[in-house]
Amino acid sequence: MNNPESKQYLRAHAVGSNMPNLNTDILSNIELSLPDIQQQNYIVSLLSSIDKKIETNTRIITELESLARTIYDYWFTQFDFPDEYGNPYRSSGGAMVHNEALHRDIPKDWGTIHLREIVDLVDDKCSHIGLSVDNYISTDNMLKKRGGICPSAYLPVEGRVTRFQQNDILLSNIRPYFKKIWLSDRIGGCCADVLVFRAKHREHTEWLYQTMAANRFFSYVSIGAKGSKMPRGDKEHMMRYPVAMPPKELLCVFSKLYSPMHNQIAKLYKENIHLANLRDWLLPLLMNGQATIDK
What we know:
Blueprint: H1 4-13, H2 24-28, H3 37-77, E1 96-99, E2 104-107, E3 111-114, E4 119-122, E5 125-127, E6 136-137, E7 160-164, E8 169-172, E9 181-183, E10 188-190, E11 194-199, H4 205-212, H5 215-223, H6 235-239, E12 242-245, H7 248-287
Parallel strand pairs: 6-10
Antiparallel strand pairs: 1-2, 3-12, 4-11, 5-7, 7-10, 8-9, 8-11
Helix pairs in contact: 3-7
């Protein structure tokens, strides 16, 4: 219905003078020009193959994210990280001590710190000019339940935005119980309701992301949130979040293990966006005969 002939038919048959409009009778009488059945089958086959590739990529993303989360929980929640002999620390009798700030036992050699000691809350500003739907982040294109991001449906037309860079952690500050969080794989800008956290030390980044993506952290943020209809997290409250601090060597091992998974996830996300755009661009061209498939 987006081709010139259909548009001309709709304009010619619209009823009313001041505000021409359409009804179901007019729409039901539109003659559609369709490819022959063989071409239709070819089109279905091509577009289905694109959809299947997107589904496969999505399944791999889910499995990689689940694997990363499992390793984090095993090492930093259950404290069964590899000891000097490669055995799970706590299950193998590793020494534990009770920590009053965390109200739980942690490994003997671990310390306790607040989030502000290992992360900065970034407030660098930049112009909105030059941003695209792929690197402008608002609360609207951050996905619930740690789902990452999708292309933005709109771009700011004035003012300045918060600048973020690769390996920053972006957190939607509206309704924190939605658990919108993303480990950035690019440079861009975000709205004021998206907070940008940056690890003070690069080797902390992957562990910090998993720590802040945990249910425990979102529950903590929700407790300190202000407002009833649209609660917002309190920044100072967030920065006081108590954390059991692992040794640097363990964080480096986790970073090396997690980084390839994160890179693959980012690559597959981008591929899915490209494939979806390709599918949506091809469909009208194939259906109105501007493009054909040779077998």
